[in-house]
Amino acid sequence: MRFLIMSKSNDHFEAGGLPGPALMRRMGEFLREASAAGVLLQADGLLPSSYGARISAHDGRISVTDGPFAEAKEIVGGFAFIDARSLAEAREWGRRFAVAHDGECEVEVRQVTGPGGPGDATGGPR
Fold first, then answer.
1. In the record, which residues are listed under signal peptide (predicted)?
2. Which secondary structure element, helix H or strand E, spans residue 8, and what is its range?
3. Beta-ladder partners of 108
4. How far apart, in whole angstroms, are the C-alpha atoms of residue 126 and residue 114?
5. What is the mean pLDDT of residues 100-116?
6. DSSP code string of 34-80
7. Looking at residue 10, what is its pLDDT?
8. Could you give the CA distance from residue 32 to residue 51 in angstroms, rounded to a whole number?
9. What pTM, to 2 d.p., does this model score?
10. pLDDT of residue 118
11. Which of 68, 72, 104, 126 has the maximum number of C-beta atoms within 10 A of its C-beta?
12. What is the number of other CB atoms lying within 10 angstroms of the CB of residue 55?
């Protein structure tokens, strides 16, 4: 089953601040562990919302709003895309992802639908 582990951004990163060496080291360790376990599909950090846009569709109208956006705590700052055997395993990887951020972040774990997702009789790629 595939899961997306997302960390929320914060004011430091939204202001263009770079991750410190300790965070980079801990994230490197997380990525090596997840790769060695065979669960990591992809992981990246995202640039501040000032480099992005939001597109909304309501009542047949499309609106585009360029960043930055006001609430950093509502913005995804980075992600890891994994292939886990269960939600419990994905939650453990999500916990490790939060630990890599020194416990100073909010992490969300969401199962991805489609091949390997709910209703897929093959059980996914594993």
1. none
2. strand 2-8
3. 6
4. 14
5. 84
6. HHHTT-EEEEEE---GGG-EEEEEETTEEEEEESP-S-GGGSEEEEE
7. 83
8. 28
9. 0.82
10. 61
11. 72
12. 8
Contact 11, 85 (CB under 8 A): no
Non-local (6+) Cβ contacts of 71 within 8 A are none
Q: Measure the CA–CA gap between 79 and 93, rounded to whole angstroms.
A: 12
d(CA 123, CA 126): 7
In whole angstroms, what is the distance from residue 103 CA to residue 81 CA?
Answer: 20
Residue whose C-alpha is closest to residue 68's, from 47, 50, 46, 48: 50
Domain residue ranges in the chain: 2-111
What angle (nearest 5°) sits at the alpha carbon of residue 96, between those of residues 77 and 118? Answer: 80
**Residues 107-113: what's their mean pLDDT?**
94
The helix, strand and coil proportions of the chain, stated in percent and rounded to the nearest 5, come to 30, 30, 40
CATH architecture assigned to 2-111: 2-Layer Sandwich (3.30)
Query: For position 122, what pLDDT does the model report?
Result: 53
- Name the DSSP class of 103: T
Flag whether pLDDT at 117 surpasses 70: no
DSSP label at 14?
A: H
